[in-house]
Structure formats: C-alpha cells, structure tokens
Amino acid sequence: MNSSKRRVTFQAADNTEGIHPTDDQSGFFARGRDFESRYVNHQYTEQEKELLASYESVDYLPSHSHVYENWLKQQPKRLDWDRWVMMGLIGFTTGLVGFLLHQMIGLISTLKWENTQDYLIRSGLPLAWVWATSISLLLVLCGSIMVVILRPSAAGSGLPELIGFLNGTLVRHIFNVKTLAVKFASCICAVSSGLPVGPEGPMIHMGSLIGAGMSQFKSDTLNFDIPFFQRFRNSEDRRNFISAGAAAGVASAFGAPVGGLLFAMEEVSSFWSMKLSWQVFFCCMVSTFTTDLFNSAFHNFKYQGQFGLFKTKSYIIFKVMESLDVNILMFIPTVALGVVGGLLGGLFVFMNLKLARLRRAIIAKAKQQWKKKALKILEPCFIIILFATASVLLPAAFNCSPYSCYLNGEKLSPDSFSPRCLVEETSSQTEIGVSLYTCPPGIVIKDENGSIAFSNKSFNQVATLLFLTGEEAIQHLFSRQTHWEFSYVPLLTVLVLYFTMACWSCGSNISSGLVVPMLFIGALYGRIIGMLLVSMFGVKSDEYWAWMDPGAFALIGAASFFGGVSRLTMSLTVIMMEITNDIQFLLPIMVAIMMAKWVGDFITHPLYHALLEVKCIPFLDAEPVIVYEGKNVNLELFKTRDAMASPVHVLHCKESVSTIAQLLLDTTHGGFPVVRSGSGLHTNQFVGLITSRFHGWLALLHRLNCWRTCATTWHPASSYIGQC
Description:
The structure is a single chain. The strands form eight sheets. The chain has a three-stranded antiparallel beta sheet, with no helix packed on it. The chain has three domains: about 80-310, Orthogonal Bundle (Clc chloride channel); about 330-355 and about 395-615, Clc chloride channel (Orthogonal Bundle); about 650-710, CBS-domain (Roll), CATH 3.10.580. The longest helix is centred in the N-terminal third of the chain and has 42 residues, at about 80-120. It has 25 helices and 18 strands. Its main location: membrane.
C-alpha cells in the first residue's frame, strides 16, 4: 500500500522481541492490551505501530511477469517426485535432530539428578544443593550466553516468529543456520538444567529451519550453493517446506505424526491445500519413524539392543498402562476441568504478557548495550537458582509418605505386617519409581507375579514431582490406581511453584518451550480434582465407578490447560491421544479442550498470537475483526481506495538511480505501479507492478544498459509484472 510517511527509525530485523513503548498509558487491566477477548482487536500505541510498519511482507504469489513466463516455458514437464523426495529428506533430518536432542537432554538430566541423590544420601542436603544449583546454573549460563551474544533470534520457542513469517511477514534471521545451531545447543542446556520448560517449541522451530535450508540447497552463512532442486528456490515452495518442517518437528517431539500435520494446519500455516496435506503427512511419518527407531535402540546414547524393535515405552511418551471405561457422570467434573483450564490458561497468558512488558521496561532503562545483554543473561540464571533451590530444599519441608496397601478399596495400615496385604485382591497404591529423597528404604514383599504386595518403604511426594524431569513427573501424575500417592498440600505447593516459574521462564532469553510445563500444570490441578472425588466417594473397585481415578483426571486436566493457553482443538486432541495411547478418554478430552477454549477466548488472545502482538509482528487473520465508528462491520463494505493512500507514487519504465533511491528513502511501500508515457488523455498508462526489494537489480541493469537482454535471465522469484 502507498503511504507518504517517511521510513521509521525502528529496524524490524533487530526487534523481533518487540520494544518498550514509552507512549503506553494504559492501565494494568486495560481492555484491548493484554486483557482482551479473542473477538476484540489488539490496541497498539503509536510507537508500536511504527515498529509494525517497519516490517516488509513476503510475496507468496507468482509474479506472472514476462521473465517468469519465459522461465516457465523453459521448464520441462515433470511429476512431483522430487517434491516428495525433499519432504522425505526434511522428515528424516528433523527426526534425527529430535533423536539427538532427546538423548542429550536425557543423558545430562540423568547425570544431574543421580548425582544429586547420591550427594543427598552420602553428604547431606547442603552439598546436594550446591551440586544441583551449580550444574544447573552452569547449563543455563551457557544456554543464555549463546542466545544473547551469538543469536538473539534463537530465544524462546520461535513459534510467534514462525507463525508471522508463514502468514506473510518477513522476519529476519529466524531461518539462518546459526540460529539452528544455537537453538539446538541452548535448548539442551535449558531443559537439562531443570528449568520448568520443554523442548517441543524449539523442536518445531528447528524443524522449520531444516525445511527452509534443505529445500534451497544453498547457504550464505556456510558459503555453498549446490545446484540441486533449484526449482524450489521461490517463496511459495520455501513456505510449504517450512510448514512441513514445523509439522515434522511436532511429530518428532511428541511421536505424533497426525498431530504434527494438524498442528501445522491449525496453528502454524496460513496457506494450505489438500496436496500439501498429503506431502506433510509423509514428512511427519518419516520424522516420527526416524525418531522412534533410534530412541527405541538407544537410551542416553547407550545401545539397548534389538535395533528395529519399536518399544512402546520409547515412542509413547506418556503411555497410560491401565485403561478405564468412561461413564456419563464423568462429564460433570470434565466440564469443570475445562472451565478451570480456560480460567487458569487465560491467567497464564495474561501474566506472561505482563512479564514480557516488565522485562522490556527494565532492559530499556539500561543505556549501554553491554548492560542490556548482561540483564538478559542474568535473568534465566536468577530463575534457575530459585527453582533449583526449591527443587532440592522444598521436599525437606514435607514428611515421608508410606507406601500404601489396599484390600477391596479399603486402605490397610502399613505399620503392621499384615498377611492380608499378600492376597490376590490387594494392589499397591504407590508406584515403584517414586523418589525416596531422605526417607528410609524399608523392606518390600512381592507376590508371585512380581508386584509389590506389601512394603513399609516411604517416599517424598514433592521430591517425586521436582527431583526429576518434567516428563517423568507427568508420568507419575498420569498413573492409574494410585489414588493416594499424592496429597493435597504437596500438589498445591508444586502447582503454585511451577505455574509461577514456568510463566517467568518461558519469556527469558534462552531457547525453551512451554508444552511440558502446560501438561504438568494441568495434570496437577486435574489430579487435585480427581482426589476431591475420591475423598467424597472413596476408592471404588466397582467397574461402574472406576472412572473416579485421580490419574484419569490428571490427563483431562493436562489437555484442558494446554487448550486454555494455546486454544488448539483438533491437533491438541489428536496429540493427547498419540502421546498417551488412551483412546477411551477421547470424548472427555474433547469436551475439556472445547470448554477451555471457549472460556479462555473471553479472557485473552491465544498465547502465540498474543506474543505476536507484544512483539509487534504483523499478522493478518483469515477473518479479521473490522471496527468502524465503534461498530463491527464486514470487510466487504470497503473498497480498495479506502485502504490506499493518495497521491500514488509511480515509476516510469526508465528511471534514474537517484529517483529510485529517493523514492525508497521517502516511502515504506512494498510495491510501486510502473507506468508508460502515453498520448492524449492517458498521459500515464499502467503497465505493471514492481516490488521495492528488486529496485537494486533494476537500477544496476539500467546503469549497465542491458535492460532488455539481461532481464530474460532473471530468476523466477523476480516480481516485475507487465511490459514496457
């Protein structure tokens, strides 16, 4: 669009994290800023509008110029076999990166927590705290320095920038090979350090980076240009391969190929087709196959034998071992969980946005660049010191909990060695993999099947949730027939801690995602609601009432909070099915997700779209809300002249270099009409359109006096339309 405004002083390439607007006079709960319904447009300040205007758009449509037409005529008719090959290569590479990421995180996390437990037993709590805090701080410091110093575009999950780019906004540096390397290393450091973050968001960004790089077979950073698949070197094909890479990243991270396809279609991509769906489905299949194949054969890079055997525990990350039948009465607490998920999800998004604005306000007060960078590096370090301290010391405030023995739903005292604990009807109500912390080991008696029949062992409930990775803690919360494994106070304590620290961590300058924290937070309050039912009605062994299991409601709660934050529906439902293999709970999960979405939409925008607004990255919704004179109106009521500026800046078929340069300096337009001098009433005849990013080529061709001869060799991505 034409506008007579001069270029703003902001540079979009250096402000992907947004700015601190000094002209923001809105209150803390002002409507239209952070506290806003999804059905209301975000209100920007004047400075934020200037930053919005500094971005350029990406033209995904073919130019239809003579150059493009000549290039099309020279191309032989071919099938899409090479496109399928490229999708397979992207899927395989993304799956391999996902495997390496998962193994590295597992290796470092295991080393950290095993040594912490060893120090705790041998040397006591102080030395265990020193070890855990030191190793966590070192990892976070390395991850943060890499992001702040080497590649700021690698911070966070990268999803808002990815969504903005695929919508048509040119966001610089997010698809650079340096970003991929820093993203990979920083994500390993962040997740393995114990920060309340996950690797799934960065994995999606890395998948899109692989799609962007492999499809072009060229890199300015690495200084190579391989003449393969040159026909993919256009913005439309590159966009499609980036979408496929993002979907493959989801598939690799979750082991969810169908969920990856739906996630890309529902959340990431703004341009989609049925043909692209088939190709992305294939890409996700290859990605999941690659990750699952290697994860089944290796554990922390140690070969487990039986290569080629897909082990369920390796590729279904939160596999539910005990299936339960759904009862219609179950939908009453399910609806309540959905409402809670929407409310807490909206609160989480609101707090996240406020922390992002506060973070930028504090950094903006630092005048020197080194001080700004120091603040960005120190923030995640401060967070991990607090969280590591809480993870190691907080369990000491809670007493040891004995393993429980049940007979026909009635809890038996573990204090006495009762023979009734050895009968067939008895089942252990505590998992084997809980954390002892400083609790005495006790003794264990197993039955003929190898199951624990009786034990006077004890464990620490808070340590079971904090003394390990987020994924392992979620598995404990999802466990079935463990009704009293956790009590109310430990669950509430960890819920408040994790909710606050996860909200704070996800906006810091380190590569991290939010999927694991969202599932963990939802599982915590879901299990609390499940325990309320058990407290009111008791542990039921009858099949009709078996659905009253805290682990079952932890699963529904995890889905509800994920939906309340992201507002995903189809893709989230399928992902939850694929990561748990619990198809029986399909309907309750769907109900909880829809309720969470409806409630959350009345509080805030979805998290990733709200971050787009905070970072001032332009995004054009498929169904934009148009407000005119205080009323919502239909976009069809407007004409082109209502959006275009006057007078129109034009270019003639032949222009001087100084004229073109001055026009680019004085305007912010993405394209200019090209006119030809006519006779009579039509003094200027419109012959085409040219985009601003190709003015340098035009000026060079004109100065070399090869306008006609050189133009026919241009790349098809050229955007000159028409003829002179």
